[in-house]
Each structure stands twice: as C-alpha cells, then as structure tokens.
Amino acid sequence: MHAYSRDAHAIYRQSFAIIRSEADLSRIPADLEDIAVRVAHACGMPDIIDALVFSEGAGATGRAALEGGAPILCDCRMVAEGITRARLPADNAVICTLNDEPVRAMAREMDTTRSAAAVELWRPHLAGSIVAVGNAPTALFHLLAMLDDPETPRPALILGFPVGYVGAVESKDELAANSRGVPFVAVSGRRGGSAMVAAAVNALGREAHG
Amino acid sequence: MHAYSRDAHAIYRQSFAIIRSEADLSRIPADLEDIAVRVAHACGMPDIIDALVFSEGAGATGRAALEGGAPILCDCRMVAEGITRARLPADNAVICTLNDEPVRAMAREMDTTRSAAAVELWRPHLAGSIVAVGNAPTALFHLLAMLDDPETPRPALILGFPVGYVGAVESKDELAANSRGVPFVAVSGRRGGSAMVAAAVNALGREAHG
Question: Is residue A49 one of the residues assigned to a domain?
C-alpha cells in the first residue's frame, strides 16, 4: 500500500488548495468564497461552484446572524450532525424538528410529507434564523409558502441545498426567482445534500477543525 | 408558486423511475441494482452508477450479513444518522467510534487522523460486520492496513465511499485493487459521501419508508 497523508490539518489545506486551483471563483463574491470552497470540499466536485446561486451579501448576513446567536434550522438529522459545533461562534442552537412527536400526524392532516410538516414547527425559531435545507424539496417549498404570508417571521438566511429528481430543481429555482426578501445561497440543479449544506453552515462559522 | 408533489411514496417511486430511465444499469448485477439506484437517488447524479466498482456477489453477501445481525461500522456520525433504522432487518447495531473518549489521544499517539484512530476501536465488532466509510479516506486506508494482518477479523462487506481531493481516489483504488479478500462496493473517483454510503446500507435492508 502506498503511503498516505495522515495529518488532518495538512489534508484540509491541500484539499482547499486543489479546489482553488481547479475551480472558477471569479464570479463568487468575497463573502461567499469560504462557502463555495467548503461546499466543493464536501462533495468532491469543484464544478459545483458554477451551480451556486445567491443574493448579494448573503454570506456577510449569514455570518453576522450566526455571531448574533441565530439558531440553525435543519430539515434532517444528517444536516444537524454535519455542523461542527466548535465552529459555531455563539453556541448556536441546532434544531431539527423532523422527528418531533407531532410531525407524523401533522403530515397526514396537512396531506404533505413529514419534512414539510416539520417546517411548521420552525415558526417559533424562524425570526433571524439560518435555515439549512439539505434533503427535502418539500421542506423548502413549504417554507417558501409560509413566507408568502407577510406575517411569517423572516429567517436571516436560507441555505437551499435539497437534492434529487422530484422537486429539487423546482424548489431551488423558486427560491432563486423569489426568495421572499430573505437572503439566500443555493445550488441549482439536482445536486445538493446534507453534507453540502452543513459545509455551508460551517463556512459561516469561525476557524476550527472538527 | 407551482404545485409540487407532496406524497413521499410517490416522490420515491417517481425518483427511482427517473433514475432507471436515465442510468445505464446493464453492467450492474441484480444483487447490486438496489444499491446502485439508491446511491444515485442520494446524490442526484444517475451517472454515479458508472463509477461503482464491486466484487461479485457483494450485494447478496451484504444482505445476508445484515439479516444475520451484522453490526454496521460507520466512520462518521452523518453516516450513522443516514441509516434508516426501520429498514434494518435484525435491529442491527449502528456503531460510530469517532467521538469515543480515547480517540483523540490515540490519534496523537498513532500520528494519524481521528478518523483512522477510531477504526482501531472497530476491532471487537469487525468479524462479519458491514463497514460503511462515507467521509474519511484515512479511515479506509487504516482499515486496509489492519486487514493486511491475517489475524484481523474480516468484515462481511466494505462499502467504500470516502469523498474528496486527498486520498479518496487512492484509498478506493487500493480497496478495488486488493480488498484483502473482503467483498466490497465502492464509488471510484473523488465523489462519495455519507448520504451515498448510508443509501447503500439502506438498500441492503428491507423495504420500508423512513
């Protein structure tokens, strides 16, 4: 077997250097560079950076929200697990309501998925939050529908990274076309996932290795 | 906003139908078809199926092991979270040692990553297990080095899906070139990740929606 690199910090550094050498970052604003590089790091695909869509200032807004103590609302447990707690600047709450007791019955009553029903339970935490969708298109769709009501509290930032074949493209296109006044970062197309959106959250945090 | 599909079962069915219509499954043996389709489902990329490498009978072996009660050894918490417990046929243990107390000190002493050190703690569970690596190339490299010792108990199946730019390609090439007599499924190249390998485990389980 060949020798291999065993130094975690060196592996990180080398990985980020490879991404920067291969990816086109010219279109990415300075406040989103960390997000772009870390999302590419999470998936092994530098060209994912070409698929990023975002509103101006989204990175700075997200970083300020996180420093101000914003909770992070995750659509599934994998996203919550992927967030490196040591990077969170304000011991931010990481909330996933998907497995909360009422969700199954709510989904039946609302005639929708558990992922969408779980978003209803975000309401008390929504104001100023960081929303991290890394799995379910229906979660993002339902959030956007909730935000169509001007009374719904606004998140500080929506990270839209649902993945897949049914609704993923459409939900992210809807977010990019009309984010209901909320700053956003998303990856267009079918690609996405919990590792990518957790990497985006981690990029908004402080320097730490976890 | 456009109408969108809210029926989880229908979304699954439609997604799998899209994958089957777009992907080339001709090269995939029958016992790996579910794995191939579910891995493609997890990442939104039907062409990931072209990157699968495997030993003959790996799917059937993995399924039998799982039904026989095999523990599932995961290299990170995201993999463990991605495994749908309702699909496991024998209430199989899902084990992740990455955050076990001794790991940090072991990594220092072994001069390697925490991910690799954590694999040392798999030894008591290794015989007949399903190994699911979805993050760290160093975890897969260290496992292969352990298996170079003929005294090391053999897993039933290695699912090799580490992701990234440093060591991911090399560790999976090493697995495919010499799996130390252990059946394996891997995705060659830089791509991989916790969602893909969790999907592969879920594909070996029984039919259930989670």
Answer: yes
Domain, as residue range, for A131: 8-204
Best residue of B6, B20, B104 to probe chain A, by most A CBs closer than 10 Å: B6
Q: Is residue B3 part of a domain?
A: no
The values of phi and psi at residue B135, to 5°, are -135, -65
pLDDT in tens, chain A (210 residues): 778 999 999 999 999 999 999 999 999 999 999 999 999 999 999 999 999 999 999 999 999 999 999 999 999 999 999 999 999 999 999 999 999 999 999 999 999 999 999 999 999 999 999 999 999 999 999 999 999 999 999 999 999 999 999 999 999 999 999 999 999 999 999 999 999 999 999 999 987 654
Q: Cβ separation of A170 and B141 shorter than 8 Å?
A: no
How many angstroms separate the CA atoms of A173 and B198, rounded? 28
ipTM: 0.96
Answer yes or no: do B145 and A193 touch at CB < 8 A.
no
Q: Is residue B52 part of a domain?
A: yes
| Shortest distance, CA A35 to any CA of chain B (angstroms) | 16
CATH number of the domain encompassing residue A172: 3.40.50.10230
Are the Cβ atoms of B6 and A138 closer than 8 angstroms?
A: yes
Q: Domain count of chain B?
A: 1
Among candidates B4, B43, B78 on the partner chain, residue whose Cβ is nearest the Cβ of A191? B43
Q: Strand, coil or helix: what is A93?
A: coil
Residue B192, token pair as written in the block: 């991989």
Reported in sequence order, the residue ranges of B110-164 that DSSP labels E, i.e. its strands, are: 130-133, 157-160
Q: Looking at the domain assignment, is residue B209 inside a domain?
A: no
The residues pairing with B157 across neighbouring beta strands, listed in sequence order, are B130
Name the minimum distance, in Å, from the CA of B193 to any CA of chain A.
7
